[in-house]
Amino acid sequence: MIITIFNKRRRCFSQTRKHCVYLFTAIVILSLSVLNCRADVNTEKDYASQREKMVTEQIEARGIRDPKVLKVMRTVPRHQFVPEKLQNLAYGDHALPIGEGQTISQPYIVALMTEVIKPEKCIKVLEIGTGSGYQAAVLAELCQSVYTIEIIGSLGKRAERVLSGLYKNVHVKIGDGYQGWPEAAPFNAILVTCAPTKVPRPLAEQLREGGRMVIPVGDAGAQELVVLIKKNGRLEQQAIIPVRFVPMVDIKGKTY
Ligand code: SAH
């Protein structure tokens, strides 16, 4: 008799436990699908609000004022230019790895360099160091045409794929940007996103009279972002801020 009651209780207990497990599994599955749906529906909206926050807190707060630049920084989908695994970090206040030991620049630096060249719908721009293609995208929104050169083939190809899906006015070349792009020169503006120790002469030559070049100059430890303005064939130089960019290298990987 006692044994029967005990067995009944055990059965009862094990059934309750089974029900608990079913219930728990159902809750987990339901929550996961709800989360998944949320991600699918809201992602672009989430990214848009992250971009808004990025512009207010990182870019306007540090003194970028050109309304065209601010508008474009609010528009270009930066997350599409970073590796998929890092997309949730795309709008943070920092550079991010893009593979091959290279980085996409911090949003503020992209905005600053863009503002410094005084972008206009009628100008032709050369960028050295395509990397992810993000800076080229920002320029493509504001300028007539963008010529961009990347020395690492895999990065250049990936950037070209993303850019060609979004813009018709960007030309990507894989090669050594130290030499510039003589066939497309002269340029109204040149924006260099890798650092040589001295301003490359071919780039100075390919800058149009009255044009502006923004470039980080110096060795790995101490680079300065400078703006050069061509006046009467000579370059006037003005320092902006200390920065840290990847070095400009030649085909063998030697730093310029
Ligand atoms: N503008 C990029 C940031 C690029 S980081 C962006 O928006 O993501 C700098 C890039 O310069 C790297 O991809 C690096 O491979 C490239 N680079 C270095 N030396 C170069 C050279 N001589 N010519 C062209 N690209 C170069």
User: H/E series, N to C?
Assistant: HHEEHEHEHEEHEEE
| End-to-end CA span | 93 Å
Lateral strand order in the biggest sheet: 5-4-3-6-7-8-9
CATH superfamily of the domain at 65-243: Vaccinia Virus protein VP39
How would you name the oligomeric state of the polypeptide chains in this document? single chain
The largest sheet, given as strand count, sense and whether it forms a barrel, is: 7 strands, mixed
Would you report the number of β strands? Answer: 9
Portion in beta strands: 15-25%
The chain-level structural class is alpha/beta
Structural write-up:
- The protein has 256 residues and is α/β, with parallel strands linked by helices.
- The protein has a domain at 65-243: Rossmann fold, CATH 3.40.50.150.
- It is 41% helix and 24% strand.
- The chain is built from six helices and nine strands; from the N terminus they run H-H-E-E-H-E-H-E-H-E-E-H-E-E-E.
- The chain has helices at 2-60, 67-75, 107-116, 134-142, 153-166, 201-205, and strands spanning 96-99, 102-104, 124-128, 145-150, 170-174, 187-192, 207-219, 222-231, 234-243.
- It has a seven-stranded mixed β-sheet with strand order 5-4-3-6-7-8-9. Strands 1-2 form a two-stranded antiparallel ribbon.
- Helix 1 packs antiparallel against helix 2 (67-75) and helix 1 (2-60) runs parallel beside helix 3.
- The longest helix has 59 residues, at 2-60.
- It is globular and about 90 Å long.
- The model is unreliable at 37-42 (pLDDT under 50).
- The chain binds S-adenosyl-L-homocysteine.
